[in-house]
Queue: 2 jobs
Job 1
Amino acid sequence: MGEKPGVCGNPLSRRAFLVACAPLAACARGRSEPPGPRPVALPLERFPSGLRVTVSVSGHPVEILRSASGVTARSLLCTHQGCEVSWSEVDGVYACPCHEGKFDAEGRPKEGPPPKPLATLPARIDGPLVLVGP
Ligand code: FES
């Protein structure tokens, strides 16, 4: 088994290729569902510590936040009706543009109609990659 062409021109091992290219089942579910259930591999270098970086995982916006203790991945789909929320550094909340829902820094509902927290996805650093998903 040889190496497959990789993301950004970098060769990936067979395992990393399969992980990175595995389709996620989220598209078959409602838009407010988080992506899953297979992991996606992303280059660690894209995520400087302390910066919130939004990536697309099977078309779904996911925020990756790297810290000294590791990495977290949070779906940016509002749990009310699935609009994309965005982080406001000034207000310290995730704000939803559709019905003015707000979530705190941990993704918990703070204001408005969202019924539950923003979904988090399993994420870990594995060598030069961030793996998002199980
Ligand atoms: S979709 Fe976000 S508050 Fe309604």
Job 2
Amino acid sequence: MPYKKLPGYYPDQDECQPGEELKDYLETIYPLKPSRTFDEMDNDLRADGELTSIIYESSILYVLRRLVATTEHFYRVSGENKIATNIALRSYLRNYTRYSDEQVNKLSKLLLPCMETARDAFSEGDKNTAKQQRRMYQWSCFVCGKEMDDSNIPTADHFWPRGMGGLSNSGNLRMVCQICNNNHKRDNINHADYHYEEIAISATDYKHYKGSGHPKVHEVAVFAKSKYQCVVCNEPAYRVGELTIGRIDLKDGWHYLNLAAFCLKHKPE
Ligand SMILES: [Zn+2]
Ligand SMILES: [Zn+2]
């Protein structure tokens, strides 16, 4: 295994998952270049590059999924034969895309492991160690920071989804509450996967964001965007405790680009 195994269950994310390696490589094939259309929109929204980066990230992730799905297709039609999958994938990439030979080589090398991770699961040993560690340090949910108990039980979540090249090992395991696990979903890699245009609400609806009535999936998207930590003290949710959604600019409305996660101590207003 070329992937480094880290000692803790909450590492600083320096372990590279196969899917992450693929994403990094796609970003070298398609580097972010200035686009007049998106830059103008970003400017007019005073988004400071955030809109452009969401559009870019989301498109890279779409390409990643498309390539993994294509690989899975060849795997299925070949009767789950890895060698035949590799041959079919390479010939597809060579004949139907503009990738160079070097890119075809590298992509096929990265894609096969991404397809295989979907069939794995965490071992009971890894899950038990993570549970013990969580209890020992009294860590709360990795995503929302809420305490976990019998009514909202701790569950083992793949931080990088296994369907997209996330390994089933301790480096990719996060203990999250059951509600967040259901809303984090195996196919959401990062905040660019959520539909930001849905996470904008009308002025009359804003109270939803202040109470607990807003859709949990929107909350998870904002937490993901803030890297599951408070944007003021940068303390991660699992240590600082419950996160809440607040506006970055108090003179602006309740829309995705103006929302971030705050710990209860640094909550604005
Ligand atoms: Zn949670
Ligand atoms: Zn804070």
